[in-house]
Write a structure and sequence with these properties.
The chain is α+β, with helices and mostly antiparallel strands and 247 residues long. Helices cover 45% and strands 15% of the residues. It has helices spanning 2-10, 19-28, 33-42, 59-68, 106-112, 114-119, 123-138, 145-157, 159-165, 213-229, 237-242, and strands spanning 73-76, 82-85, 176-182, 186-198, 203-210. It has a five-stranded antiparallel sheet. A hairpin with a 5-residue loop joins strand 1 (73-76) and strand 2 (82-85).
Length: 247
């Protein structure tokens, strides 16, 4: 049936298909990012997933993420979609590059991704808190398809989410110290801060600053590993701080 619907869309038949159906169709047919974009174009619909949202991030913001390294940092929207991230964040809790773009959502990952879940020291507390944060954020987006799709996927794929969602707890944003068990460098204790880029849309830059000297050393080691994978050398910390005086 999925292939039939896809064929009808390619033939420009006059059919009405919701974004939820298009999303399910893309997953069933295992479409890659470009094929998924083509599907939504055929249906004259807007793809609400993180994979289609990264155009919102400006070149200056991408550069800021890079300049913050080795501090892990990313840009998220109010739905906790990860729109962009630097290389250290990409290895903080999982190999984020290996995660399909449409699955790069912090709440979806904490409930469904084994690697991501294994890295979070206080997993049960985090899952409950994230469900409560999602409910609080969703209050202003109740009629939007992307929010409905996220809750539907989480409800279908995670019994733990269903249990926490039915608690009807609500909690707002808060800054706190978090601990991660990184598979490459070990335990990291980091201070989580939200830097608001566009409060109206909920867009924010999330940073994780080391809380102690040991965590800082381990973050530096993680950064060195990532650079080695890219075939680059580590720039001394003093140079990263001072910047290029010729600019």
């Amino acid at each position: 049936m999925s292939q039939v619907v896809y064929s009808w869309l390619e033939q420009a038949r006059d059919i009405q298909v919701s974004v939820q159906v298009l999303d399910a169709l893309a997953r069933t047919l295992m479409l890659d990012a470009s094929e998924r974009a083509h599907l939504f174009q055929l249906a004259a619909a807007v793809d609400p997933t993180p994979a289609a949202s990264c155009a919102w991030v400006s070149p200056a913001q991408f550069e800021l993420l890079r300049q913050l390294e080795p501090i892990p940092a990313c840009i998220q929207n109010s739905r906790y979609d990860i729109l962009a991230y630097n290389r250290t964040y990409g290895r903080l809790m999982a190999d984020l590059d290996a995660v399909p773009p449409e699955d790069r959502n912090c709440i979806f990952l904490v409930y469904t991704n084994p690697e991501w879940r294994k890295s979070i020291v206080h997993l049960d507390e985090t899952m409950r808190l994230m469900a409560a944060k999602l409910r609080a954020s969703m209050a202003g987006h109740l009629g939007e398809p992307a929010w409905k799709m996220l809750v539907k996927r989480l409800t279908a794929e995670s019994a733990e989410f269903r249990e926490n969602w039915e608690r009807y707890e609500v909690v707002g944003m808060r800054t706190k110290t978090k601990q991660f068990l990184n598979p490459y460098v070990g335990l990291l204790t980091l201070d989580h801060t939200d830097l608001w880029l566009n409060p109206e849309s909920g867009a924010r830059m999330v940073t994780y600053v080391p809380s102690d000297a040991e965590s800082r050393e381990r973050l530096d080691a993680l950064y060195a590993m990532v650079l080695a994978e890219d075939g680059q050398a580590v720039t001394p910390a003093a140079s990263r701080t001072s910047g290029d005086s010729s600019r």
